[in-house]
Design a protein that fits this description.
single chain; about 160 residues; mainly alpha; 8 helices; about 0% strand
Length: about 160
């Protein structure tokens, strides 16, 4: 039997938010994509088959909503007075969770999606490949490369020097 919709939101809301943030960063856009995900899900909820994997289904809806936001961003230029310089925060202690979302957001799209859907969304590599129109092997490689980059970014300074 299918659970009530409010229970699905409570149970899977955090996962959906992680996916949205992995694709869009820890921004208001991610929060909007989260809301849009559950609004779209609410419309479809009565027709959803009882044996549906609700978490995987919601991750797919979140993916589509996040892609919609990404496409909308691409269509609108945002003027700025000065382009800010990038600075590294390697070795800075006590970075908060926003640093993780920013780091994920800087990954190439294929790596970002592979990490978002596999590690944050809980989908298999095969499900992720189907979702983004790729192969399972390519998704595995993208996820591994993305994780390597994140580990390097968040590695303690001692480990970068060969120490333990």
């Amino acid at each position: 039997m299918k659970q009530p919709f409010d229970q699905a939101v409570e149970r899977h809301g955090v996962t959906v938010l992680r996916v949205c943030r992995a694709v869009l960063g820890a921004t208001a856009d991610a929060d909007d994509a989260w809301s849009e995900t559950f609004l779209a899900a609410l419309e479809t909820w009565p027709e959803l088959p009882p044996d549906t994997n609700v978490e995987a289904w919601l991750v797919r809806v979140a993916y589509r909503k996040a892609i919609d936001v990404t496409r909308a961003r691409a269509r609108h230029a945002v003027p700025v007075a000065d382009v800010p310089e990038s600075r590294t925060e390697l070795g800075v202690p006590e970075r908060d969770e926003d640093d993780l979302w920013r780091a994920v957001g800087t990954l190439p799209e294929q790596q970002r999606f592979a990490i978002a859907y596999h590690f944050f969304g809980g989908l298999t590599h095969a499900q992720t490949a189907e979702l983004i129109g790729s192969t399972e092997a390519a998704v595995r490689r993208a996820a591994a490369n993305g994780m390597r980059t994140l580990r390097t970014t968040f590695a303690p300074e001692d480990s970068l020097k060969g120490g333990h």
